[in-house]
Design brief:
The protein is mainly alpha-helical. It is built from 12 helices and no strands.
């Protein structure tokens, strides 16, 4: 009986549950580790994001006989020049729009109320949305909370960025060594893998690297193209705060599926405050830009590589948001891709034959 497969399985489950129970009883021992992990998560995740964006450039410079450290420094100088251009050319307009938006947020809510009242007096719209209806009151309450949330989020983002200058300053340092030592990292990781599994480990690392690279680079290209299309459209229709709203949309569109909806809410609200026709044209601009992205750009850039079911994506976003907020939402899909590759390979190595023979 002691040697039966059923008994060993039950014993393993009991041991695992016992370890989890004892670990929960001494959780205070793990608090410093969790704190260190949380502290390093943001700079490492940000450095990894820029690593996959800049690595092709560093590799190209290396093929042109430029050593990697020098190539990284050259890229840093180029980015420093771009940052100076941003400060001189873009930041004044963006700063003015941010300040005006925060300052005029209460007035924008009042203007929204006025527009809604005028719209409710229209004979056509009053049939669907009377001024005293629950739908009307619900929309006004939601719009008020949305405007307050947008204003507070912009203010909080500025304060958060100012408060984590030290963390942000570490990103270029981490990124420098990631780009400089990228060729040595796989061998260091494989050194802890048993020799008989190193070939499989090499393939897993290659698959993970390829998946993350394609996903991140493709997502950035798509979001940049979408943002450019939206900004041009916003300028044409005369949407207020067009640059600020485009940047907000660019950030929110990194969230799969729901990001596009979240990004369009502030655009439509601001457009409606200006006039109902601007709101309608804002929706037209967003829909046209999204259609160009989904039907023309996405198939060219991704093809069928990103094979994740929409329901799986929603579940991942909910789990990631519950654990780490907006950072968890942004990291949910890449983490799932990495975990899926590892789990599939482990299953092929250790469980596939046993399951098929059972």
């Amino acid at each position: 009986m002691m040697q039966s497969k059923y008994f060993r399985t039950c014993l393993g489950i009991i041991a695992l549950l016992l370890i989890i129970y004892l670990g929960a009883k001494v959780s205070f021992l793990f608090n410093p580790i969790v704190s260190i992990f949380n502290m390093l998560l943001v700079p490492i995740a940000a450095a990894g994001f820029f690593y996959y964006l800049l690595r092709p450039i560093v590799d190209y410079l290396e093929r042109r006989k430029i050593k990697r450290p020098l190539g990284v420094l050259m890229i840093y100088f180029v980015f420093a020049g771009l940052f100076i251009m941003f400060i001189l050319l873009v930041w004044p307009t963006l700063k003015e729009q941010i300040e005006n938006f925060i300052e005029n947020a209460p007035n924008l809510v009042n203007d929204l109320q006025t527009q809604m009242n005028q719209l409710s007096k229209n004979p056509f719209w009053s049939r669907f949305m009377p001024s005293e209806s629950e739908l009307y009151n619900g929309l006004m309450d939601y719009a008020n909370r949305a405007m307050t949330w947008i204003s507070n989020s912009i203010s909080n983002l500025i304060s958060v960025v100012s408060g984590v200058v030290v963390i942000i300053a570490t990103i270029p340092i981490i990124l420098y060594y990631m780009l400089k030592e990228s060729s040595k990292l796989p061998s260091k990781l494989l050194s802890v893998v048993p020799r008989r599994y190193r070939k499989d480990g090499q393939e897993v690392l290659s698959d993970i690297d390829s998946a993350l690279s394609n996903f991140i680079i493709g997502k950035v290209i798509l979001n940049l193209a979408l943002s450019v299309l939206m900004y041009i459209g916003f300028l044409i229709i005369g949407l207020p705060y067009s640059l600020l709203l485009t940047i907000i949309s660019f950030i929110l569109n990194f969230i799969p599926y729901v990001g596009a909806l979240l990004a369009s809410i502030p655009v439509v609200i601001v457009g409606f405050i200006e006039s109902p026709s601007i709101a309608i044209w804002s929706v037209v601009v967003i829909v046209v830009a999204q259609q160009i992205q989904d039907n023309i750009l996405t198939p060219v850039i991704y093809g069928k590589q990103l094979d994740i079911h929409p329901l799986t994506t929603i579940i991942l976003l909910l789990i990631g948001g519950d654990f780490y907020g907006i950072l968890g939402v942004l990291l949910a899909i890449p983490a799932y891709m990495v975990l899926k590759i590892i789990v599939v390979r482990v299953y092929e190595l250790f469980l596939a034959e046993k399951v098929e023979d059972a």
